[in-house]
Every structure is written in C-alpha cells, then in structure tokens.
Amino acid sequence: MPVAESVSVTLAALPRGVHIITSVIEDALPSLPEVEVGTVSIFLPHTSASLLLNEACDPSVRVDLEMVLNELVPESEAYTHDDEGPDDMPAHAKSMLLGASVTLPVRSSRLLLAS
C-alpha cells in the first residue's frame, strides 16, 4: 500500500454548470481499494473553474446552486475583463467563491462524501 501517490486527471470539456466527477476521481485512484484510512486532495489548476463537495442524489440541488451562483455573479454586469467573452469574468469570480481544491477523507477503501 503506497504511503502517498500522485495522479493527474484530465476531464473532457464540460458545458458551464455543476457536474458530478466522483467516478472520474475514483477511477483515477488505482490504489484506493488498498486504503483503510487516508485522505485524497484534489486540486483544479484552472482559474475559471472550481471544485465543491455537495449532495449528488437530488439533481435539483445542482440546478439551484447554479441559479444562486448566477444571482451572486451575474453575466450582465459591465466587467472590464471580457477578452474571452462575457462569461469569463463571472467564471473567475465563481471560482474564487467556491475554491479550487477539496480534501476528502477515505475510510475502508471509500471516499467519504456528503449526503
């Protein structure tokens, strides 16, 4: 059983929104079945995307979260940073609010996720 391991994952381009990537993360961790207790740190090196831990059971949570984020950071504002389109600066602001990393506990070979 490795004490520490580092893997990189490349996600296919996804449309704007809240997406579940749990299976992608689990599939990228070949030694996960050997881990009884540990942590997994996930970092997203992109300034206009973010990571969060939330409920995956009810799809309406993702819809409502997107609505809340769009109300907090509307595209209709006159942002000065608009070189890459009107959605770029709002994406940077949403990333700042949500963050670019998540640390998950592992117990009995499973990621402990929110419910």
TrEMBL record:
It comes from the Eukaryota. InterPro entries: UPF0047_YjbQ-like (IPR001602), YjbQ-like_sf (IPR035917). SUPFAM superfamilies: YjbQ-like. Pfam families: YjbQ (PF01894). Belongs to the UPF0047 family. This is UPF0047 protein yjbQ. It comes from Thecamonas trahens ATCC 50062.
